[in-house]
UniProtKB/TrEMBL annotation:
This is Ribosomal RNA small subunit methyltransferase A. It comes from the Bacteria. Residues 20-194 form the Ribosomal RNA adenine methylase transferase N-terminal domain. Belongs to the class I-like SAM-binding methyltransferase superfamily. rRNA adenine N(6)-methyltransferase family. RsmA subfamily. It comes from Formivibrio citricus.
Length: 265
């Protein structure tokens, strides 16, 4: 079989470092009863060792050539391939089909060129997900796990930390891939909160408030939310109107959105 030429339009960088693969498998720690869905199986660097731990695996892959290669290598009894774009894939429907009454585990080396919209898409299925382990650009993982008051803290981290417990698992150098990407990578673990520690009454409004707050990072919260909230509103919630958006916690953004929801109803 001819070797597969990585395609830039699909953001393909194939993991090949056996030590890194072993570290990821140890982090995932798959059990034989787990229902696992792999996003972007590529050349099966993770697929093969996962199938040594579980009897069956589902995988979502956009590249038809890779799907054909994997279908030649693995039987349908071991691997079910979904030739689809993960960005538009209904993981909720799949979970209801393959894990009725239960939850699925997601793993994968996500395409770096669509990682942020893909993460937001996957977050919408948190209620049917047990956990997620993803390889991503290190810079994105930095933003996902960032704490308030840091330069990496922003909309992405707030929206994901609202719904998930976030944990950086390991950093991965470019040399672990073929072809090597021009950036460092990292693996992140995301576990949906069993009960949201801070629940937004209107999640669309919460997302809108966060997005508006970070419209211009260098401006104060007062300036970015002008016309949305008053200084009195912020003072009521013990939020300094003169602070920058990165100094406001997830809990405070939720409280602010809930305050607005109550006054809009």
């Amino acid at each position: 079989m001819k070797s597969h030429i990585p395609r830039k339009r699909f953001g393909q960088n194939f993991l090949q470092d056996q030590g890194v693969i072993a570290d990821i498998l140890n982090a995932v720690s798959p059990e034989s009863t787990d229902v696992i869905v792999e996003i972007g199986p590529g050349l099966a660097a993770l697929t093969q060792p996962l199938l040594e731990r579980v009897p069956h695996l589902h995988a979502v892959e956009i590249d038809r050539d890779i799907v054909a290669r994997l279908n030649e290598r693995f039987t349908p009894q071991r691997l079910t391939l979904h030739n689809a774009d993960a960005l538009n894939f209904d993981f909720g429907a799949l979970a209801r089909e393959i894990a009725p009454g239960g939850k699925i585990r997601l793993v994968g080396n996500l395409p770096y060129n669509i990682s942020t919209p893909l993460l937001f898409h996957l977050a919408s299925f948190a209620d049917v997900i047990d956990d997620m382990h993803f390889m991503l650009q290190k810079e994105v993982v930095d933003r996902m796990v960032a704490s308030p008051g840091t330069t990496d803290y922003g909309r992405l981290g707030i929206m994901l930390q609202y719904r998930f417990v976030m944990d950086r698992v390991l950093d991965v150098p470019p040399a672990a891939f073929n072809p090597p990407p021009k950036v460092d990578s990292a693996v992140v673990r995301m576990i949906p909160w069993p009960n949201l520690p801070h629940r937004a009454q209107d999640e669309a409004l919460f997302e809108e408030v966060v997005q508006t707050a970070f419209a211009q990072r260098r401006k104060t919260l007062r300036n970015n939310l002008k016309g949305v909230v008053t200084d009195d509103d912020l003072a009521t919630l013990a939020i300094d109107p003169g602070c920058r958006p990165e100094n406001v916690t997830v809990a405070q953004y939720v409280a602010l959105a809930n305050h607005l929801a109550q006054h809009m109803s």
